[in-house]
Design goal:
The chain is 40% helix and 13% strand. It is an alpha/beta fold.
Length: 283
């Protein structure tokens, strides 16, 4: 894959779930940032090719990514041969009936939890290298939800309890928020902070989670909801977390409508540790 550079200051953002309602709005919003160009990803090649690349040249040709497949994540990583400065993990699955992936994992757990975790794990080294080259932090934005809870670490795939897509979604979003906080700590420990310059003391790679807003989407409909906000409204906070200058050094945060608050799930250190061990056990 080739990524074009029009100036030395151009940075590249990767967005998952880019063919969805909010995903498209995130891509569009990021592409309006002067110093950014965007690579969209999605599972459906026809949807990707019909939407991207954009005439402006700011949205590049998309890459096929099945976020629920570790092989697909590794394939994306292996073909990526350019810097990466912003990773927005937005794709989520919410089937009404229980579905199992080709590797035998419940779909929401595979896409919404393992997929988020594996993407960060696979792309963190590249984000770090890219931050060093441009001299400013790279950013990971985890698009989670305020509608979160009911995480069952003993039966995350509903092997023993009846499947309910709302419960599965809520627990996956709780897990995303917990893992984003854990990754923020881990990446700062692993890659450290800038020793000097404008971003002295700032992490090389930041990780923050956010709520995207209440938008009427196939995902919200699957959960039995509608939505009163526009796609642009829903994408506003993820875009802001990905680009705001005042957040360049912020990591481990939880944001709703551009407001930071304490995530009660991330504060449970023991549960975060157990969750980390669980997702790592999947390999």
């Amino acid at each position: 894959m080739s990524v074009s550079h029009t100036t030395r200051t151009v940075r590249t953002a990767l967005v998952t779930g880019a063919t969805g309602v909010i995903g498209r709005a995130i891509v569009e919003g990021l592409s309006k940032v002067e110093t950014l160009q965007v690579v969209p990803t999605g599972r459906n090649p026809d949807k990707l090719s019909s939407l991207y690349p954009s005439p402006s040249g700011k949205v590049l040709r998309g890459i096929i990514l099945d976020q629920g497949s570790n092989n697909s994540i590794l394939a994306l990583t292996s073909q990526w041969n350019q810097p990466l400065h912003v990773l927005v993990i937005n794709a989520s699955a919410t089937p009404k009936k229980k579905e199992i992936t080709a590797l035998g994992i419940e779909t929401q757990w595979a896409v919404n939890v393992l997929g988020y975790h594996r993407l960060i794990k696979a792309l963190a080294p590249l984000l770090f290298q890219s931050s060093e080259k441009v001299g400013e932090p790279s950013r990971i934005v985890v698009v989670a939800s305020c509608w979160a809870g009911d995480l069952n670490l003993e039966d995350p795939e509903f092997k023993r309890r009846p499947y309910d897509n709302g419960t599965a979604y809520r627990q996956s979003k709780q897990a995303e928020r917990m893992l984003s906080h854990a990754w923020a700590i881990r990446l700062q420990e692993q890659y450290g902070t800038f020793p000097m310059g404008t971003y002295k003391g700032c992490p090389h790679v930041t990780v923050n989670a956010c709520h995207p807003g209440e938008v009427n989407t196939p995902l919200s409909n699957s959960l039995g909801f509608g939505g009163h906000e526009s796609p642009a409204d829903g994408a506003d906070t993820p875009i802001w977390v990905a680009t705001a200058k005042e957040l360049a050094c912020v990591t481990g945060g939880w944001f709703t409508y551009r407001n930071r608050s304490v995530c009660r799930f991330a504060s449970d250190t023991e549960s975060v540790r157990k969750l980390w061990d669980l997702v790592e056990s999947y390999g």
